[in-house]
Task: structure prediction
Amino acid sequence: MTIPSLLTTISDKVTKNKIAVFERKLSKGTDLLNIEYGIGPYYQSSTPSYEFAQALSKHLKIVTICDKNNLTNCFPYTYIQTEMGNKEVSDLKTGDSLQLDPANYVDTAGIVLGDGTPMIFSWNKNCPVSDPDSVEYNGIKENAKSKTTSCISGIYDINGSKSPNKFGKDVIAFGSANLGWINFAGLKLSLLKPSTPVKTGDYCSIVDGRWQVKSEYKTKYNIQNCCSHDRCVRTNGDSWAGAMIECIDAGGHLATLTDLAKIATYLYDEPSQIGDEQLSIHPLNLSKTGTVFSVLNTSDLTFVWSSLERDSEGAYSRRFTSINTSMEHGNRYYSNYMTLCVKGPMPSE
Result:
């Protein structure tokens, strides 16, 4: 065995041991809390995670507790490196920022364990009450986490303040939390989110009395037309162009019509791959929405932009409802259309 491979093997074992120690300590604390009070739901304020941390501190050695507005007092650096760029620790204030369902995970809180391990987590305010007599363990009781930890999701750093502070390397996710790309329907996706519009003047300039796309936006972001509608120029902004820019800057691309059709095939239980422009009349399978499409659990109508531009005023999208899905086109100034980024270079439509 060569020295580099030996060092890698040792490093992997050290990491696994640190993760096992963290999970064991956290499980013991939540087990004891569960026995005394039940694990939930009994925090219903606007800061349930912070209140949960205070209750947990009676059963787990915690030296510092931070509310969502003071997370850097618990996490020992300002940002975390991810595949999608640096994530500011101070921005991780909500369950949504950890890519968790905002209907269940409201705020976040930070804690520092007695051994110095920093952690940011969100507590599921709708988590069902656990029966302490029926706690099940995944593996050996002394070394594995119990089901009482299933009500919380978050991140922790197994190396404290030591570099590189990289997600997936020394910053580890537990539960359903994530700071990077999400595996969904055979793709690596970002969290579905409202589009952030840009004004036409941000990516275009006026030449000889007409709007023209600036060269860097035409080549890097594949925006070929300026949205000249007054709502793009002055009021609403260009939602589609904002989505294109955001996804490229994140190291991916805005979902293509083919990507959206693949997702629709999965969500609507289609027996075969539906076409880019095809209508599906199968009902939505809510059990498949997961974190990425959790918005579909509460919304009867959701539009998601595609990367295909129509003209200076419109672009193509896919509509998702509880009973069908189809390709649509919408005005670029529409503010209710969503952004969905896919990892990888932009393919040709």
